[in-house]
Design brief:
Length: about 90
Amino acid sequence: MKKNLMVLFLALIIVFSLVLTGYAETVTLRVAWWGSQNRHDRTLKAIKLFEEQNPNIDIKPEFLGWNGYWEKMGAQAAGGNLPDVWQQD
């Protein structure tokens, strides 16, 4: 009897976990970086792999070359609108 209750309990946990996973909200993160076109391409590939492994996370990429990057980050910081993840030296 105890074994049957344990199996039923574990089955319910698995079912509830699957149901809750299906209803998880999508989180959007802004990610900013600077660099060359090569770095940009490699970062986009890494983001794609990350999103495939984490389907509830949506990455919004923000890329600039070196020129203008720090001015943009400064303006966003002043406005309280920095990306969630951003590159520094």
